[in-house]
Amino acid sequence: MKRKAALNKAMGKVEKLVIIGSGPAGLTAAIYGCRADLEPLVFMGTKYGGQLMLTSEVENFPGFPDPVLGPDLITKMKSQAERLGARLVQEDVVKVNFKTYPFEVYTSGGVTQALTVIIATGANPRRLDLQSEMRLMGKGVSNCAVCDGFFFRGKRVAVVGGGDTAMEEATFLTKFASSVQVIHRRDELRASAALKKEALENPKISFVWDSAVTEVIGEGKVEGIRVKNLKTGVESQMPVDGLFVAIGYEPNTEIFKGQVELDPKGYLAVRNGTESSVPGVFVAGDVHDFRYRQAITAAADGCKALLDAEKFVKQKLEAKIPSR
Questions:
Q1: Which positions ≥6 away from 296 have C-beta within 8 Å?
Q2: Which long-range contacts (CB under 8 A, 24 or more apart) does 216-219 make?
Q3: DSSP states along 208-227
Q4: Other CB atoms closer than 10 Å to residue 308's CB: what's the count?
């Protein structure tokens, strides 16, 4: 213990672990980080909690026999991390410098140095930019068929999009919904041949071509949508119980450009599970995972990233890395 205290004193204000992000990945990393005695400092962001903050009932997160609201699930994770000793700061990270060591993380409150960093900034679904869409988000409007499809058993739903994600969502929804209408801005799908074939041959799926959703109708829940034909300008109303917007995601990686490697889609590139292209910088959750995008897989990523970060920090402490 004396040796460890001496090392901490020698490092000055250098943090052992900084976590950027506060969704399931970041908060799980914080919980495990406390247990590993890394004293995690978490920059939550001014809008914390990730996509769960816009999710209504969550039924598939283990440990909750009854549905839990997305914001309540985040609150429980946050409280657990705080109880264990995590320092949660509601500030946005505006810049990082991973080309120097210790690493530098910049917020409105100043610059923080860290021995290791876990990036868990997530990804945001692209929106239709409609007020009615956001008003009814979680009340029939969704960005995740796997998360919410179960709630639409025997009901009519619409899917917006024409790419791989939209076809995957539409096909998945046919397990529950009575009908699925795909609304696409063009007259031809952009999806891969296999996904396109599967959707076109599914008797539950129909297509509305050359069209866009201009309004989501309903007060406390989705009751229908207004659709405009982009060639004729004619608008019509379509009765549906749910709307799934599947037009892609934007990973929150802007501040990391030029600091770590990104893949062609703009997601953080990883190797060996959670390692970024910079040794000591680890990655967790939807900021790299464009395939699964589930709260539970993000949480698992947070655990794995922390375990990898713990080994990295241990090596640095044993090497007695000096402060600058």
A1: 24, 60, 61, 62
A2: 216/130, 216/132, 216/133, 216/135, 216/136, 216/140, 216/141, 216/243, 217/132, 218/132, 218/136, 218/139, 218/140
A3: E-SEEEEEEE-SSS--EEEE
A4: 20
Question: pLDDT digits over 143-181, tens only?
Answer: 999 889 999 999 999 999 999 999 999 999 999 999 999
Positions marked catalytic: 144, 147-148
Q: State the Cα–Cα distance between residues 149 and 194, nearest whole angstrom.
A: 22
CA distances in angstroms from 105 to 15, 58, 92, 250, listed in the order given: 11, 33, 10, 22
Q: What is the DSSP letter of 321?
A: P
- pTM, whole model, 2 decimals? 0.83
Report DSSP state, residue 267. Answer: P
Using alpha carbons, select from 252, 311, 321, 248 the residue that is nearest to residue 282. 311
Express each pLDDT in 53-74 by its tens digit.
978 788 889 999 999 999 999 9
pLDDT digits over 293-321, tens only? 899 999 999 999 999 999 999 998 887 65
- Collapse the DSSP code of 310 into the 3-class scheme (helix H, G, I; strand E, B; otherwise coil) and give the result: helix
Rounded-to-integer distance, Cα 147 and Cα 150, Å: 8
Is pLDDT at 248 greater than 70 in this prediction?
A: yes
DSSP 191: S
CA distance 198 to 181: 14
